[in-house]
Structure formats: structure tokens, C-alpha cells
Specification:
Blueprint: H1 3-28, E1 41-43, H2 49-52, E2 55-56, E3 59-65, E4 84-88, E5 90-91, E6 107-116, E7 132-136, E8 142-147, E9 150-155, E10 172-176, E11 182-191, E12 198-199, E13 204-207, H3 208-242, H4 247-264, H5 270-274, H6 280-305, H7 312-331, H8 334-337, H9 341-364, H10 370-392, H11 401-491, H12 496-525, H13 534-543, E14 550-555, H14 557-563, H15 572-593, E15 597-607, E16 610-619, H16 633-644, E17 648-653, E18 659-666, H17 676-680
Parallel strand pairs: 1-6, 14-15
Antiparallel strand pairs: 2-13, 3-4, 3-6, 5-12, 6-11, 7-10, 7-13, 8-9, 8-11, 15-16, 16-18, 17-18
Helix pairs in contact: 1-10, 3-4, 3-11, 4-6, 4-11, 6-7, 6-9, 9-10, 10-11, 11-12, 11-16, 13-15, 15-16
């Protein structure tokens, strides 16, 4: 299975999972409509806790602003005024207190709700009456909860002024067994430390087992998500420590860490369940700081992934906003720093939309794995928007932001994993290619050393042949010439004719030294005929073999045209290399072939979008056995010459049927070309 197929299946699985998650979100919004409190009374006569589950205590509550009324005094006829009504959940800001004055964020009040329970819950004839429980997530910012006159739960210290109040944030479960179907719920609330007073989250009523099970699930879910975020943060921090050049891993690790820290002080408030000593102000500062830090780190992470798609200006502006907001959170008390959060949420919504825009832009531009990234972003935003329905009381849905963040984290982990796998595959491919290139380089270096050895050996052989020529035939001719000159000198006095004959003989010997020996040595050292052209040089070389062999030299007209071109003909290195190749081939024929005929041809061919010089040298000699090919010095020299010119060669033959050497040498792109070549092509 190819890597592309695996990647496409991974995308398919994730997209299907994201679709299922969104469908789950939508399904959870459609449930049986729970009854709402009307004029301070919640009628649950038709509600069945076992069938319908937990019910939210939403609706109109009695509200006594500016008063702490004892539970047993609420039904007294001596109350000065009728109660006002206020929606729960919600803030008391702007509602009137008992004196008719509008309430601000600071203040205190009494809330009351009368609940009519189902008959089966409080039936005295039912010996297995269920124990009920009320879950209170938190209240701004301290409270006491009374049920039928009994104090069952409290947070912080109630007060009528700021110095006396102690805020606290800790979810509580109040358990009770109703005496009858009528339950009187009273809540004393005070707030002097937050921008809004009142009951911001819904209270929930159910059997004690239901409430305990739900809270246990929330605790397990919260702890699992927190642990998963923390572990993944450590994991990606380790990856970044090993590969500092990939900054996306480092930013993602910091983002996960910031999310984990925020989870400690929000939602089910894991930290509050572990310790009661954490000050309310400190928990609020941690939450708000992470609200500014998390999107900033995610923006850096996004820019590290798609640097060409993220605006530098937007990055700088958002960083400035985060720095100013974080500084305000650290310096100001919670009652003031909390006031900057509502306008900040507008900016936060804008940056979320910008994240979506960048994701769509990356997909449109074909960035690798950008669809996987987009899926996580969309799932998180959908979860955030649906959860707002819960906060506003529009729909009774679950707290989905942690799940949305989990989907986001999962998508980013998959995204980074796919990228890491691709990077690893690229590194593996590069390592394989480097190993191949290293092996090729080592082979070329070995060949180069072998070529140098061959050239040195060939040079030594050439020197030896020249020395043999000079010390043998040339030296003998010179000694004979000197001897004839001496004889002519002695004969000058008595026999002029003899002296002239001696001088003529000496002159002939010197001419032989000049014409035969010196020119032969010079041609071996450097063939001057190469300067006149490749055809002329080879013809001069073949002249020395015509006395012993019947030689046929066939030249393609294109070769002659290019060799005589006004632009300079073939490159000098090519002419010299071809000359030496022919020279070695002819020498091999004279040493080993025992041939009578030699056939040499030069032609130009066009293939693979390039021009090649084709050389063929054949003889009718004894041939060779292909099963045991020779690797003598001559063939090694030919191999070195052909390799230097970037060509290739083959040697074919069979016993008794001669040998054929074929050489193909590419002409360089800047090599002059004759117009006839285009016609040939």
C-alpha cells in the first residue's frame, strides 16, 4: 500500500470522526424539553428522574436584592414587599433590589425557588425513596444554599461589604431527602470581586446517584483531558528538544501546556477539588492569562506551519493585545480585570475566524495536510458555538468546549505526526540518496586513482619506448653518421669522390633521424596533427599502419563538415581523446590481433535530445573469448579516456572472427553544430 493511500485513508477516518462529532453535538441539542420555573415555582409533577434524567433549575426565581432573608422568614406575612423575579442562570446586574434601585455588580441578595417534586420521589408509602442532590457549579462569588431550612452547601464567606467577603470557586453537591413533594430552595449570594453578580451557571437536580455519576464522569473526563494534554505537551517538547529547527513542535507543546493549565481552574475545576487553599484571585488570574496566552501561542504555531499564509501585521497586533491584556490581568484585581473580558471576547472571536481563514487559505493553496488541520479547527469552533447555547440558556447541551479542544489537539497531533512521518521519509530518502552518491563518489575516486595509475604507467611505457628509440636506432644512426663524417674527413686529402660519398651517406642518416625518429618521438609525446583536425590526425596515425595492414577509413560527411567548421571544429580535448583512443586500439591490434584488415569509421548520431560522436574500430584478427575478456593496459587506458569524455564503450568479438571496438562520446552543448545535423535528426 502506497504512502499516499495510507494518508488518504487517515484523512477519511479523521473527517468521518469529525462529522460524527458534529452530529453528536447537534443531537445533544435536541432533547425532551425540561420544565422551567415560572414565578418562582418549578413544577416537576410530570418529570421522572429515572426516565428523563437530571433537570436544570432554570427559569424565574424569586429575587430579594439587598437582603439576606432567613429561609423561615420568606413565607412570613411581615415581608415589606412582594418578591421580584429574575432569570436563572443569569446576572443580577441592572435588576432592581427591594428598594427599587438598580443593582450593580457589587451587592448581595436572596434567591428562592419552590420545587414541586414527582409523586414517586417523596411518597411516604414508598420505602425506597431516592436521595436527591443539587449540583452547584459556582456562584459569583460566595453563597450559602438552604434546602427546607437546612444549610447544605456553601462557598466562601458571605458579606455585605468587600472587605468582609471571601470569594471562592468550588463545585458542590448538596444531598437531601425530601420530606414531601414541596421543596423550598433558598440561596444567599454576595459579590464584591467580579464584574457580574448572581448565578451564572445552571443548578441541576436529580437523584444522588445520577448527580454523583455525572460528576464522576466529569472528573474522569477532565482528568483524562488534562493528563492527555500534559503528556502530549511533554512529548512535543521532547521532539522539539531533539529538532530545534522545527519550531511548530515547540509552539504546539506550549499551547497544550497553556490549555492544561486553564483546565485546572475552569470547567469542573480540578484544582479546587484537590485543594481548597488556592485563592480565588489567583485562579482567576491563571484562567485569564491563559485566555490571552493560548491563542497567541496558537497563532505562532500557525505561522510556523504556514508562514506564507499568516499575516505578519496581524501577528504583531494580536501579540500586542495579548501583552497588554496579560499585564492588566497581573496588575488589576479580579473585579477590574474581569471587565476587560467581554470586549476581549469579540477580539477572540475575530482571531478564531482568522484561524479558519488561514486554514481555508492553506487548503486552497494545496499546503500539505492542511485539510486535516482545518477539520480540527472547525470542530473546535462548532463545539464553542454550541456551548454558548448552554451559557445563554437557549438549549440544554453538555459542556463541549473540552471535547472540542480534545478534537483540536487530536487533529494537530495527527497533523504533526503526518508531517513528522513525511520529514522522516524525506530524511530517509535523502540518507539513501547520500549513501548512493557516496558510493558513487567512492567508486569515481577509485576509478580516478586507477586512471592516474594507468596514466603514470602509460607515461613510463612511453618514456621507455622513447628511451629505447633514442638509445637504439637513433643512437646507432647518429654513431654511423659521425663515423661517415670522420671517414669523409680522412678521405678529403686523397679521394674527393669517396669523401663526398661518405658525406652523402651521413646526410641520409641524419635525415632519417630527423624524419623518422624525432617525428615519431614527437608524435608520441604530443600529436601535432590533432591541431589540424580530428580526421587529419587519425589519417596521419593510420599512415604508419598502411605498410602492414589493409586500412579502410570511413568518415561521415557531417564529421568532416564539423571538423572543418570556421567556428573551430570539435573541442580540442575531444580531438585529443579520440586520437588516443584510436591509437590504443591500433596498438592492441598490432600486438594481439594478428589481423590483415582494419576498418575505422567516424559518424555523428542524434538521440536522447543530444548529439554523439560514434567511433567504430574493427579488425579481422584472432578475436577473443567473451567468457574471459582481457583487461590489459590498453583497454584500461581506453576506458579512462572514454570516461574522461563522458562516453561509453563496448568491445565485442569471438574466437577467429575478429574484434570490434565501439565508442560513443556525447558532444557538449556548446560544441559547434553544423546545419546538416538538424536534417539528420
Amino acid at each position: 500500500m502506497s504512502r499516499i493511500t495510507v494518508r488518504m485513508r487517515m484523512y477519511s477516518v479523521f473527517l468521518r470522526s469529525s462529522l460524527a462529532f458534529i452530529i453528536f453535538i447537534l443531537v445533544t441539542t435536541v432533547s425532551r424539553a425540561a420544565p422551567r420555573a415560572v414565578e418562582g415555582v418549578l413544577d416537576l409533577a410530570d418529570w421522572d428522574f429515572q426516565r428523563d434524567g437530571i433537570v436544570a433549575l432554570n427559569g424565574e426565581w424569586e429575587f430579594y436584592g439587598g437582603l439576606f432573608l432567613p429561609p423561615d422568614a420568606l413565607d412570613a406575612s411581615s415581608l415589606p414587599r412582594t418578591p421580584r423575579l429574575i432569570p436563572v442562570p443569569g446576572s443580577w446586574n441592572g435588576y432592581q433590589d427591594q428598594s427599587g434601585a438598580p443593582m450593580g455588580s457589587d451587592g448581595f441578595a436572596t434567591y428562592r425557588l419552590k420545587i414541586l417534586l414527582p409523586r414517586t420521589v417523596a411518597d411516604s408509602r414508598n420505602p425506597t425513596k431516592d436521595e436527591l442532590a443539587i449540583f452547584v457549579p459556582y456562584v459569583n462569588t460566595s453563597y450559602e444554599l438552604w434546602v427546607d431550612g437546612d444549610l447544605l452547601a456553601a462557598n466562601g464567606r458571605l458579606a455585605r461589604s468587600r472587605p468582609e467577603e471571601k470569594p471562592q470557586f468550588r463545585p458542590e453537591i448538596a444531598r437531601f431527602r425530601p420530606a414531601d413533594r414541596h421543596v423550598d430552595l433558598v440561596l444567599h449570594v454576595s459579590n464584591f470581586h467580579f464584574r457580574e453578580g448572581g448565578i451564572p451557571r445552571r443548578l441541576e437536580l436529580g437523584t444522588a446517584d445520577q448527580i454523583a455519576l455525572k460528576q464522576r464522569r466529569l472528573e474522569v473526563t477532565g482528568a483524562t483531558l488534562f493528563g492527555a494534554n500534559l503528556i502530549m505537551a511533554i512529548f512535543f517538547a521532547g521532539i522539539y528538544a531533539l529538532r530545534r529547527e522545527n519550531r511548530a513542535d515547540g509552539y504546539f507543546s506550549l499551547f497544550l501546556l497553556s490549555i492544561a493549565l486553564r483546565m485546572l481552574v475552569t470547567g469542573d475545576h480540578i484544582l479546587a477539588r484537590v485543594t481548597t487553599e488556592l485563592p480565588w484571585e489567583m485562579a482567576l488570574k491563571i484562567e485569564y492569562l491563559m485566555d490571552f496566552v493560548s491563542p497567541t501561542i496558537f497563532l505562532f504555531y500557525l505561522r510556523a506551519l504556514f508562514p506564507e499564509d499568516v499575516s505578519t501585521l496581524i501577528g504583531r497586533c494580536w501579540t500586542a493585545v495579548a501583552i497588554l491584556g496579560g499585564a492588566a490581568v497581573l496588575v488589576l484585581p479580579g473585579r477590574l480585570s474581569s471587565r476587560i473580558i467581554p470586549p476581549y471576547l469579540l477580539l477572540f472571536a475575530a482571531i478564531l475566524l482568522y484561524f479558519v481563514y488561514v486554514s481555508f487559505r492553506a487548503v486552497a493553496r494545496g499546503r500539505p495536510d492542511s485539510r486535516l488541520f482545518l477539520g480540527g479547527i472547525v470542530a473546535t469552533i462548532v463545539a464553542s458555538l454550541v456551548t454558548l447555547l448552554r451559557y445563554t440558556g437557549i438549549a440544554a447541551v453538555a459542556e463541549l468546549i473540552p471535547m472540542g479542544i480534545f478534537v483540536l489537539v487530536l487533529s494537530q497531533c495527527l497533523f504533526l505526526a503526518v508531517r513528522s512521518a513525511r520529514t522522516y521519509q524525506q530524511a530517509l530518502t535523502l540518507a539513501t540518496e547520500n549513501a548512493r552518491m557516496l558510493a558513487k563518489t567512492e567508486w569515481q575516486l577509485k576509478k580516478l586513482k586507477e586512471y592516474r595509475r594507468l596514466m603514470t604507467l602509460r607515461e613510463e611505457h612511453l618514456r621507455r619506448r622513447i628511451a629505447e628509440t633514442l638509445h637504439g636506432r637513433t643512437q646507432g644512426r647518429l654513431f654511423t653518421a659521425i663515423r661517415r663524417i670522420d671517414q669523409a674527413e680522412r678521405a678529403m686529402s686523397h679521394d674527393i669522390a669517396a669523401a663526398g660519398a661518405y658525406l652523402t651517406d651521413a646526410k641520409q642518416l641524419l635525415d632519417q633521424v630527423r624524419e623518422d625518429d624525432i617525428r615519431s618521438v614527437g608524435r608520441q609525446l604530443h600529436p601535432a596533427a590533432v591541431g589540424a583536425g580530428i580526421v587529419a590526425a587519425i589519417e596521419s596515425l593510420l599512415d604508419t599502419f598502411e605498410e602492414s595492414y589493409r586500412v579502410h577509413f570511413d568518415v561521415d560527411p557531417d564529421v568532416e563538415a564539423m571538423d572543418q567548421a570556421e567556428t573551430g571544429g570539435f573541442h580540442y580535448d575531444l580531438r585529443l581523446g579520440v586520437y588516443r583512443i584510436v591509437e590504443e586500439g591500433l596498438n592492441n591490434i598490432s600486438r594481439h590481433a594478428k589481423a590483415q584488415r582494419i576498418r575505422l569509421s567516424l559518424a555523428i548520431t542524434h538521440r536522447d535530445s543530444g548529439n554523439y560522436l560514434e567511433l567504430t574500430l574493427a579488425d579481422d584478427g584472432v578475436g577473443f573469448d567473451p567468457k574471459s575478456p582481457s583487461s590489459g593496459l590498453g583497454l584500461q587506458t581506453i576506458d579512462a579516456r572514454v570516461s574522461d569524455l563522458g562516453g561509453h564503450w563496448t568491445l565485442t568479438g569471438s574466437p577467429g572472427k575478429g574484434t570490434t571496438l565501439r565508442v560513443s562520446i556525447p558532444l557538449k552543448p556548446d560544441q559547434p553544430e553544423h546545419p546538416r545535423e538538424s536534417r539528420t535528426a
